[in-house]
TrEMBL record:
InterPro entries: DUF6597 (IPR046532), HTH_AraC (IPR018060). Residues 162-246 form the HTH araC/xylS-type domain. GO terms for molecular function: DNA-binding transcription factor activity; sequence-specific DNA binding. It comes from Chitinophaga skermanii. This is AraC-like DNA-binding protein. Keywords: DNA-binding.
Length: 289
């Protein structure tokens, strides 16, 4: 699989994290240690050739249309490619779709929406321009221009959800929604409704994903077999809670064992580092002037 990453225009930050240009043949995440779609994030996906399908845990597989909003995934999932696939993936932050597209994320059912249904002319033209683009640099300029244009059309307030995301990060994902509601001087119901509308996740689920992603990033960077020592630094009060998250969010090779055979704090550092590698593969990022 070929995977090249490019920086987005600075004016699109923090909503657009980066762009990925992917080429692959008969790709299946069961047999490859590289996850295309991260937990808790949103993506704009343009499938330029071939077929790309996703299957979240306990969910029927679905084929992505030519241009779509995908995510956020809140459990482990796999991606399958059929034929020679060329795709452009726009990696968004937690509230990127809401800000750039004006899309209420609580309306995104079954993990995706067809962009050509939301705004047919804009996204059909964008797909066509990307499909016939001759260089990655030109494609990046097309994406920058399109997203800056859509952002100028959608001026929805983030309803302090960006501040809530920072609050959760500062507390390392250890939040109580009632305490959070008091901090933002509103009700628990309002916090949960606004957070779901803007991000597609509840505050509790986002916090859980944030803590798990941050922990796996630390494992990936530190390469330490003493994994329990990392947990407290990353906000886990105990190892049992991390093990539960590992099997819920984790790679598909880490299938949940039967409850009777799984000690509450037992897991190998090899499994942890294998998943960390899949979540954070080495990809170079290019910046065009």
């Amino acid at each position: 699989m070929k995977h090249q990453s490019y920086s987005a225009d600075a004016s699109l930050h923090p909503y657009v994290l980066h762009y990925s240009f992917v080429e692959m043949n008969e790709y299946d995440e069961f047999s490859h240690d590289h996850k295309l779609f991260a937990l808790g994030q949103q993506f704009l996906v343009f499938v330029l050739s071939g077929t790309l399908a996703c299957q979240p845990q306990h969910h029927a597989p679905f084929e992505l249309p030519k241009a779509s909003v995908v995510g956020p995934f809140s459990s482990r999932h796999t991606t399958h490619a059929t034929g020679k696939v060329r795709a452009v993936i726009v990696h968004l932050n937690t509230y990127g779709s809401y800000r750039l597209l004006g899309l209420s994320m609580d309306t995104v059912v079954n993990y995706y929406r067809d962009l050509q249904v939301i705004e047919p002319i804009t996204w059909q033209q964008t797909w066509q321009r990307l499909a016939f683009c001759t260089t990655d640099e030109k494609a990046v300029h097309i994406l920058n221009d399109t997203l800056k244009h859509t952002m100028s059309l959608h001026l929805k307030s983030l309803k302090k959800v960006d501040e809530m995301v920072e609050y959760i990060g500062a507390l390392k994902g250890n939040i109580d929604v009632i305490t959070m509601a008091k901090h933002f001087k509103t009700s628990r119901h309002t916090i949960e409704r606004q957070f779901l509308e803007v991000t597609g996740l509840t505050p509790h689920m986002y916090s859980r994903i944030f803590r798990f992603n941050n922990t796996m990033l630390q494992f990936h960077q530190l390469h330490t077999p003493a994994w329990r020592n990392v947990l407290q630094v990353c906000g886990y009060p105990n190892a049992a809670l991390f093990v539960k998250d590992f099997y819920y969010f984790g790679a598909n090779h880490a299938k949940t064992p039967a409850k009777k055979s799984l000690p509450s704090t037992q897991i190998s550092s090899r499994k942890i580092h294998k998943l960390a590698q899949a979540m954070y593969p080495p990809v170079s990022q290019v910046v065009f002037g």
